[in-house]
Amino acid sequence: MIADVPTQPPVGDDALQRAIAAQRRAEEMSRQPPQQPSVEQYVDAIPGMSAHWRGFFKAHPDLLFGEQAQIVGQAHAIAIDSGMRDESPEIERFLLSTVATEMDARRERLASAARAVTGASAAPITPEPIVRTPRVPTAAPVSRDVPSASGGRLSAQGQITLSVEEREVARRSRLDLPAAEAERLYAANKARLARMRLDGTYPRSGEG
Predict the structure, then answer these.
(1) Percent share of the chain, pLDDT over 70
(2) What are the start-end ranges of the H helices in 32-65?
(3) Cα–Cα distance list, 73 to 57, 58, 67, 96 (Å)
(4) In the chain, where are the structural domains located?
(5) What's the CA angle centered on 110, arms 104 and 115, to 5 degrees?
(6) For residues 57 and 63, is the Cβ–Cβ distance under 8 A?
(7) Among positive and negative, which fits the CA dihedral 83, 85, 89, 92?
(8) Which of 19, 111, 165, 175 is 20 to 30 Å apart from 76, CA to CA?
């Protein structure tokens, strides 16, 4: 029986395995979210900053970002130009007070602008005048009733209603007729007189 002879790995297998393992580690690291640096790490990474200012900004990290960073840069330049000693307690107080004052002023300007816009939008809007077209008056329908001498109305059929006094006068004026016939005759004469006055055929006083 021939003994098994161990097979020797080909030259270069160890290097290949190490390369594959390194590639796997790189892929795993790429899948992990990057870690955000701390404030101290961020400040220490700023090039050209002195140890004094590194300590100052570690205590006040908000001054490194946004509008406050712009104000700090301008205020520091003005302080140095005015003869204030750099890295001194006076210049630190000046930077802090200037940033606070400028930020308050900017907030007030924004609030004033917002109030102005709100006030303008809330102002009452004057409506435009409404132009009304004049309506043409229409004539009222002509009544078919004829006013009677006593202020009553006479219908087109010639019927008229007598008052109590007129009924009494009608009866007394025609005692030779029944009361109903006397009232009917009185009403007919009254209606004819009303029509004559309306038509203008009734003779006026002084005319023949």
Answers:
(1) 67
(2) 39-44, 51-59
(3) 13, 16, 10, 12
(4) 37-118, 146-199
(5) 125
(6) yes
(7) positive
(8) 111
